[in-house]
Amino acid sequence: MNYIDVLGYVAACFTTGSFLPQVLKVLKTRNTESLSLGMYAIFTAGVLLWLIYGFLRKDSAIVVANLVTFTLTATVLGLKIKHDLKSY
């Protein structure tokens, strides 16, 4: 592993880790009222595309980061959709 790979993994840890507090808060409180459905839907789709891109490029830093981020954002998105459907 070279310094470029290390840089990629460190960046991945920071950007992916930034979603962890939001996910933990949503899981704890089950409150998604203040979250934007549109933002989470678009962001989750974008992360999925990055994940596919990482697979196609065979870039493990991109794959790992986006797999974890997709899991986190899809969890919040699912809870947001569930909350919004209950509100109607």
Please describe the structure with a list of short key phrases separated by commas or semicolons.
4 helices, 84% helix, 88 residues, mainly alpha
Question: Would you write up a description of this structure?
Answer:
The chain is mostly helical and 88 residues long. The protein is 84% helix and 0% strand. It contains four helices and no strands. It has helices at residues 3-17, 20-29, 37-57, 60-87. Helix 1 (3-17) packs parallel to helix 4 (60-87), helix 2 (20-29) packs parallel to helix 4 (60-87) and helix 3 runs antiparallel to helix 4. It starts with a helix and ends with a helix. The relative contact order is 0.18.
Summarize the structure.
The protein is 84% helix and 0% strand.
Q: What integer value in Å does the Rg equal?
A: 15 Å
The geometry reads as elongated
N- to C-terminal distance: 51 Å
Main β-sheet, in a few words?
A: none
> Helix-strand pattern, N to C?
HHHH
Number of strands: 0
**Structural class per helix/strand content?**
mainly alpha
The average pLDDT value, as a whole number, equals 93
> Segments where pLDDT lies below 50 for 5+ residues?
none
Please bin the fraction of helical residues. Answer: over 70%
- Counted by DSSP, the helix tally is 4
Portion in beta strands = under 5%
